[in-house]
Design a protein that fits this description.
It comes from Kitasatospora setae (strain ATCC 33774 / DSM 43861 / JCM 3304 / KCC A-0304 / NBRC 14216 / KM-6054). By secondary structure, this protein is α+β, with helices and mostly antiparallel strands. The protein has helices spanning 2-18, 42-63, 106-120, and strands spanning 22-29, 34-38, 75-80, 83-89, 94-101.
């Protein structure tokens, strides 16, 4: 697992450095565990990953209200005073989160996040844990 995180670091750094105004990039599991980060300390990344787990759960609940959809969260964007937060599904039970300052090009962030997920999405898949495991 450590080697995979190290290999992912340059990809996250590339996203952060090629889109001006990105502050933090985090990869997390569906249950809110930080898998990798760039641009932030581990404690902040852990707090954000935990918050992301709640957001993706809420988004999935809302998604089930669409009769012709599959109910799965694909992208959540939150605009707050000071910037934007993006959360994107990035593989089975894995998510990519980005925090960016107000001046960020919102379309470019979404595009680069989709590109990153398409390139490495299968490597971001996380296994089912504990009581969620299927016998």
């Amino acid at each position: 697992m450590i080697q995979q995180r190290t290999n992912m670091d340059w990809l996250l750094r590339d996203l952060a450095e090629t889109v001006p105004c990105i502050r933090h990039v985090i990869v997390l599991s569906a249950d809110g565990l930080r898998l990798a980060q760039h641009g932030t300390d581990p404690d902040t990344a852990d707090r954000l990953a935990a918050a992301c787990a709640g957001l993706q759960s809420l988004a999935n609940a809302v998604g089930h209200e669409f009769p012709n959809g599959d109910g799965r969260m694909r992208l959540v964007v939150i605009e707050v005073g000071g910037g934007f937060f993006y959360l994107m599904a990035a593989g089975s039970r894995a998510y990519l989160a980005v925090l960016a300052d107000e001046g960020v090009d919102a379309g470019l962030v979404g595009q680069r996040m989709r590109d990153l997920v398409a390139r490495i999405g299968e490597h971001l898949t996380t296994p089912v844990r504990g009581s969620e495991q299927i016998a």
